[in-house]
Amino acid sequence: MSNQFLDQITQRRTIYAIGKNAAHTPEHLTDLIQTAIKQSPSSFNSQSSRAVILFNGESEKFWGLVADKLKSYAKDEESAAKTTAKMASFAAGVGTVLFFEDMDVVKGLQEQFPSYAENFPVWAEHSTAIAQFAVWTALHTEGLGASLQHYNPIVDAEVHAEWDIPANWKLRAQLVFGSVEGEAKAKTYMDDAARFKVFK
């Protein structure tokens, strides 16, 4: 089956080995990321997804904050060194997109549509996931590698303070990206029969 969109999402992979060897300007990538998020669907067209886009030194600062926070969780020097090296590999990239959900939007929808109140937090998670996937794939189409990380909520307070983030924005994920400096690991797939049911 030949389909350009399916080809792109099939090729999009988790790339851990990233660098700064990219010709893309921050302006171009900002437009790409913002457009991908704006065009991502959300329940009731809530547009609850928010993003903070960090380039170069600002991205390095974020991963430095994470590294400092994780030191308190390290059991020994060896695990601390491994964690520091991992954060350094993320800081080696071009940038990081911090994905948030605006909880004021979610609460507003809960109040406006009480019958669906318990669903709106779940649907907000759907919205951010779609936005994350859209941005990730868009960056892939530009020849960039990325990996999705989740160091929330341990750095939430530091992030909100450092970049003056509104209190109602809830950090959900971090997408770090850069030039591709190494291949993705082989991907395996479970049997279709265990995953899908088709009725005709």
CATH class: Alpha Beta
Number of continuous helical runs: 8
Kindly state the mean pLDDT as a whole number? 95
Number of folding domains?
1
CATH-defined architecture: 3-Layer(aba) Sandwich
Shape: globular
CATH topology: NADH Oxidase
Derived structural class: alpha+beta
Q: Would you count the extended β strands for me? A: 5
Instruction: Show unreliable segments.
Output: none
Radius of gyration: 18 Å
Report the CATH superfamily. NADH Oxidase
What proportion strand?
Answer: 15-25%
Characterize the largest beta sheet: strand count, sense, and whether it forms a barrel: 5 strands, antiparallel
Summarize the helix and strand pattern as letters: HEHEHHEHHEHEH
> What is the terminal separation in angstroms?
20 Å
Q: What percentage of residues falls in helices of 4 or more residues?
A: 40-55%
Attribute tags:
200 residues, alpha+beta, NADH Oxidase, 8 helices, 48% helix, globular, Frm2/Hbn1, oxidoreductase activity, cytoplasm
